[in-house]
Structures are given as C-alpha cells and as structure tokens.
C-alpha cells in the first residue's frame, strides 16, 4: 500500500501545477515563463538536497557514463511533458487540464511492451518483455470515459481550435512523462535514488529551459514578480515534493508492470485536488453536472486499477509467466 499512498500524496502536490499555472495565465503571465522557471528554480533546491545526502559524486559519475540516455529521456520525460502542459493552461481551467492529463494512465499501459519485467524463478530473476495488460487497459478505459464526459460541458463554449490546443498538448505530455520516467529507471537501475534522478533529469534538460527562457525574454519580456513567486511554489510543491514522491513510488514497484500501472493511476486524484484548489484560490465556480460525473468515473477507474493490481489475478499471471520461463 505504501506506493499507492506515495502516489496519492504526489497527486496532491502535482495539482498545484494545474492551479498555479492557470492562475499565472489569468494574471497575464506567459506559459513560456511558467514552464521554464519551474525547472530553473528546481536546480538549487535539488542540488542542496542531493549534496546534503552526499550523493552528487555518484550522480555525476553516472551521467558521464550515460550522457546520451540522460539527455534523450530527460528531454522526453521533462521537456515534452511540462512545456505542452504549460501551453495548454492558456486554453482551459486547471481541473480540465488535470482531467485530460489522466490519459497518462492509459499511456502507461500501452507502453508496457517497450519494457522488460523482472520475474523471480528458481534459477534467479529473469527479464522478459512486458505483455500488454489487457484487463488493466480495460479498467483504464473507465478513466478515459470520465475524461471524455468531463470535456462535454466545456467543449460547448469554445471553438474547435481552442479545444484541440487545450487537449492535444496534454495528450502528448501524457505519453512523454511515463516513457521518460520508465526509461530513466531502466538506465539508472538501483544505483540512483529518486532525489538523484530528479536532479539529473533537471540538469540534463536545463539547456532547453535556458533556451526557452531566452526566447521568452526576447519575445515577451521578463516575467512579473507574481509569476516568479508562483513559479517558485510550483517548483517546490510539484517539481520537487510531488516528483520525488512519484519517482519513489515507481521505484518501489520497479519490474512489476501491473503495480506500476496502479501507481500511475493514483494521479487521477489530481482532478479532485485541482477542482478544490481552483474553487478555494481562484474563486472558480463548481464544475457542471457532466463534469462532476466525469470526475466520478475518473476516480472510480483509479480505485478499480488499484484493486486489480493488488488482486490474486495479477499474482497468478506472474506465477504462470515464472513457470513458463523455468
């Protein structure tokens, strides 16, 4: 249960991203600064944390040995995740972006065949290619249905172009984040902990954030004081606390695709937290009936995912695979 609890806590802190990004957009802040400042501000905090744990040397040594992997998967896992997410905040409320973001749960299931699963056998652990979790994918469709229902009410009041600009970037981010995270877990193995992995991926993606910030300075001018303060809050709550909690949760279920999918499913809690956050902090109205129904389906899908991943059937699948290997 601990990975699930960590995942739910991460979803609470991740929700700050959707609420504060929307607040920055409503106050006139540009999405470029919302995206780049988060990672620029994360660096000193993470550097101090990893340095205090005396793990900087191990991290830098590992990054020197695998520079291409760190650059590629950090770009996919952080840049292609957060830049589109920040862009989408200009076209919809935070709770809607958070709801669409739940596509990442289905994305995680679809990515399973790209990875290997560790199976214990009498001859020791054996790695086999992951198989598409069909039943888990069907449960994920409950979440996808909830996302679609949430969009119904919102879609009536905006143009088709705005709808695509608010949804397609989030779908891209939803696939990029689990892909980058899982690939970096493979690269790092047990040598690198969650704090080191977040710092390493932040440093590896830093050149892009600096370029984006430079472009924002030239095209939009410097960020306002309010956006700087809010970006620091996002960096601490979502960039550090939530990301470390989520990475720690995924590390706990490393090699178990079913439980990994369940941990990723906990992120549907972001929808509820984003709704409450916008109502409390931004005086946003309560979502309409259809949207509330959609949220209910999203949460129901998360619960079913969690129960399935800890049920006897998943253990039976692992046992059958182990017997075939031996």
UniProtKB/TrEMBL annotation:
Which stretches are transmembrane? Answer: 31-50, 70-89, 95-116, 136-152, 158-177, 198-216, 228-248, 260-282, 288-308
Keywords linked to the UniProt accession: Membrane, Transmembrane, Transmembrane helix
Positions the record marks as coiled coil are none
InterPro entries (UniProt xref) = EmrE
Q: What is this protein called?
A: Multidrug resistance efflux transporter family protein
User: What organism is recorded for this protein?
Assistant: Aneurinibacillus danicus
